[in-house]
Model the fold of this input.
Amino acid sequence: MPVTYLELENFKSYAGLQRIGPFHDFTCVVGPNGAGKSNLMDAISFILGVQSRDLRSQQMKDLVFRPPGQVTAAAARKLKASATLIYEDPYNDNREMRFTRTISAAGVGEYKVDGSAVSYKEYEDALGEIGVLIKARNFLVFQGDVESIARKTPKQLVEMFENISGSAEMATEEYSEALKAKEEAEKQTVFLHNKLRGFKTERRGLKEQKEEAERFNAALQKKADVQTDFFLWQLYHIHRDIQEREETTDDLKTEQEEANEAEAEKAAALRDAKKQASTVRRQGTKAEKNRVKIASEVDKLQPSAIKSTEEIKKLKKQVAADEKAVTKVKNQAATHGKTLEDLETEIEDYTETEQQLQEEYEEAKQQAGEGTASLTEEQETEYEKVKEAAAVAAAKPRQALNRANRTLESARAKAASLSAELDEVKTRKEEAAEKVTELSDREAKLTQNMAKTKTDLQGAEKELQEVQKSSQEAQVSKEKIDAELEQINKNLREAKDSRRKGKDEERLQQAIASLKRHFPGVQGRLVDLCRPTQRRFNLSVTVAAGKDMDAIVVDTKTTGFECIRYLREHRIGTATFLPMDTLKVPTPASTDRLRAMCEQDGNSRFRLAVDVIACDDSVRKAVQYAVGNAVVCDDLDSAREICFTSRNRRGGGGGDQARIKAVTLGGAVISKAGTMTGGVTKDDTSRAGRWDDQAMQKLRERKEELEAERAELDNSAGRTTRGGRGGNRREGHASRIEELRNNIGNLRNRSQYARSDLLYTKTKLAEQSSLLSSATKQIEKLEKDLDKAEKAVETANDKVEAAKQQVKDAEEEHFRPFREATGVSDFRQYDEIMGKKREEYQKKRRAVREHLVKLTEKKAYEDKRDFDQPLAKAEKRLKDRKAKLKESEEREEELLEQIADKKASLANAEDDLKEVQEREKEQDGLVRETQKEHSEAQAEQLRIQKAINTETGALERLRGKLHETLQKARVDEVELPLTRGSDDEEDEDEEEESGPAPGSGSQRRKRKGRKRGSNDDNEEDEDEEMEEAASGSGGASSDGRFSNLMSQESNLSTHFSQRDDVKVIKDRKDAGRVDFEQLDRKLRKRLSDRDEKNLRKEFEDQINKLAAQIEGLSPNLRASDQFDTCTERVKESDNEFTDAKTKSRDATTTFNKIRTARAKKFNDAFNHIDEALKTIYTDMTKSSKHPLGGNAYLSLDDSEEPFKGGVKFNAMPPMKRFRDMEQLSGGEKTVAALSLLFAIHSYRPAPFFVMDEVDAALDNVNVLKVCNYIKQRSGDFQCIVISLKDMFYERSQGLIGICRDVGTNASQSLTLDLTKFDKNETSANDSRRVSTASSRKSSASSSRKSSASSSHKRGRSSIADETTTSGRTRETTRSSKRQRGGRKSAAAAASADE
Done:
């Protein structure tokens, strides 16, 4: 029993000196709530080094027992407490050790081991020797620790494992130092590497600067040569063109005078010719009037002559007709007798022909009557009469027969008509059926085509809308992009600075970057570290800060000195530094007073400059130093008001405290002294715009994005299709829209045509369907009507037969007596034989008789005819008409004579008119020729004038071009070669033309003095030359440079069209003094406009290219020395970097060793606890129902460095799926946590284990499992448990009862040994204890882990055999009942004693 007794003196609720014990291997502390059980555990924890804050007290003195009642101060000072644990060391022959802690009334504690006072460290080491680890707390479990272990986070579990494994000690000592050394070595290595790289970069830049300086000089020389050639070429051709144009102008003016004289002569000749033409034109008008008068008289006579001629023609025709009529009458009278004879002869011939016909008929009757009886002519006459009588008698029956025949024919016609109509209707039905089928197919096809057309049309319209929308969106996007690009370009143009200044700025930025690399305390320029809150404050902040805005902010004054030394050594330039540690800024009180004053203004016209600047707090002091307490005002009036009016209000402005510095938004300043400064320089504006650099950079980036987007829109606006002869054609939105519109138009036309065709087809189909239906009905009706008609035909046929019989009977009544009289038996047969012959005979006889009648009538007419009277009338009419004809001819002859006379006069008038017209035509030709000559003279005069104007304009342009070229050559400082003696000529010309100019003599004396001066005065001479150039003096330098050929007279207007203008003369003389001998011969040749344009472009491109090349260069003439110095620094830095790398590798190796050792300690503890946890949890969750038990395990987040990650604790009770610990029940968490605690205890086992109500959340089954496990492990370590459950403490070996004394309010203890009630178990425990003690004596302390492992296996087998719930055997149940009965009685007796 490691812990045998506890001795407590005035500790918490234990008054006086109390000895509690003895403690057994498995001891339970029992008692009612509030009796002091937990105080007993606090006492054990207090002895074993647990801090007071974990013992439910705030101070150490709270652990001292306070007796009830009032305690005096002297008695209170004498109060003290102590707690002693008596321990028997099983490894040292059960030597007794006493561990004691005392507490004074003041709360001062003391540690003692075996009665000797020791330090806390010694006390901790003594406990560690017996296996008690204070930091790991491997010896006790407080009330609630079980649940807290289940709720620990992975990081908290790692900390617990580090305390258990001992790796936490390494983390605080060796590991932290090694890690710090490693990080510092790596940081130093990185710093030296960056430093070396910076030196290399600087050396590379210096080398580039050296090469750049060489390229700069070469480019300057080349540019000067090209400019000289360019301007020589221009001046040469301009000067030569001016000379040629002036000569041409003089010649043209001479030609103009001659042309003016010729034009005057031609104008006079033209006037004479026009006068003569006017006279001839008046004569022609008079002749024309005469001709018109005669022609009108002829026209008046002409109708009468024509009328007379027509009348004569008519009379001649009538006379001829009358003559023919007279001749005809005479001929008829002469042939009248012969006509009568012919008529009589013809009558006789026809009479004979009639008789001959009668004879032929009689002969035919005789021939026909040989077989039958024949009729005589009288009998035939009688036969005709009988026949007529029979016809009369049979008239009524024949009418009936005719009606019957008509009815029959009508019925037959109707039947035939119905049959034909039926056939026709059937044919129409077949045609209609075919057409219906055809039209139905056509309708289906049209419907399908219309649907397809509609779909295509919708698709095309949709695509058109999409294309139009895309086109509109693209156009809108392009417009927006173009507008934004225009605005960006405008902003960029407005914000654009000179490239030279940008290079200086870039060089300064490189210098600051170099300072930052070498000196960590350099923060940068103040202008880069702050910015105004609004853009309108840029200028005012720039003016308020002044030069300090370009100063460099550093942390200390020492850093500033080092930076100055660095700049001096590297010859980078000069700079102002603001050390943060020595800057003096305005006091907060003065700043707050001014801020309050500004806030009082209702119009917000005033604000502190420091308040309108945004910056980091680290550089706020530098900003306050730069701008001070300056006030930013809206305008100068507001600045006057706050500077002067407010000063007067404060009492006349006495003292510095009353003075205010004001800066307006426009840049005006009112200083504290009262002086006002206005106006803004270009440099101020430029410096104020530096804050816009970042915005400009964003604008440039935005411009690139917009240009890329614009290019993307241009690319996506069209598509590439194949077209033409295999080539590509670019098709954009417009062409696609046009194509779609054409397609939509075609589809709409097709749809419209198809709709019309479909409507027509439907109409036709309806018609044909109606026709087919009508034909079907009509066929049915016609078939019925045809049946009726056929029946009607049969009925009518019967009626015809009956009517024929009636006619035959009626005729037979009259023919029978005549037949009997003549002996002709069959008149019908007789009619058939003789009927045709008789009819032919009668027909011929009738024709002969009719012709005889005509001849007789004609003969009678000829006999009565008279020819004398018609002949007399015709002769008289002929005579009258001949008389009229003669009169008309005489009248016509008279008219023709008059007309002939008039025509002769008209011919004479026309000849006169023609002659006058010829003269007029000749005169008009002369006028036209004269006019043409005059027009040619005017055209020549105009041509010459135009040529003069053209030459004058060309001369004006050339003179202006010459002036511009000379001016540009002077401005560009182009070196043009001059002829010798040009300086003297220039001076003489100036004196002659303008007289001695003010200061000109002194200037010439200065130039002569410069000629005589030594070379040491070059800089002074250059300054004087600059002064002369600034004052506008002209002239060429003594060395031949064409620097100032002409003066700057920009305010005077120059008339280049005037040849005698002063500037024109001066420009001509200046150009004449240029020496063109150095110009290449090829450049002197005259070129075409195209070649000249190309050559000019080549010169300009070459100059621009060289200018851009020069502009892009920023030479540093001291780069060579700086390069050598930088090379030495690179070598030194390289050596330092090599040493740093070696130190870094050594530090890393040391750290890795310590980290490996720490990880090994952690992993050893983790692996052991993980294996033990799996075994213990499985054993504690086994049962008859779940023989395999549950599963619990630990897992690491980082296996290489486990102490950096976390430890995850998971448990799966039997027959349950995986869940997080938070989702388990309270009992499941407690069992899992206890398993983990037992597993941890098995790694670094303490000789005893104290637990406070760990079974609070367990049910009876789990309590029994835990109890049996502790009981089985009691041989390996001593277990002291505080519990309130009888199932738990009835299985212990001993009980310690805690009770409360009501009188003293102190806790008392009782002890009961339960081993006396179970001898078998006691003997078994004794033997096991003896064997355990002997094994402990024989084994060393290093073998505790293996013994713990074997004890786990032994405990697992014992639990599997003994610890079950209701599945025990009856014998075990009976024995356990007997044991519980005995222990309950003992416990009852103990309670009674208490």
User: Anything to note?
Assistant: The chain has a mean pLDDT of 75. DSSP finds 34 helices and 26 strands in the chain. The radius of gyration is 75 Å.
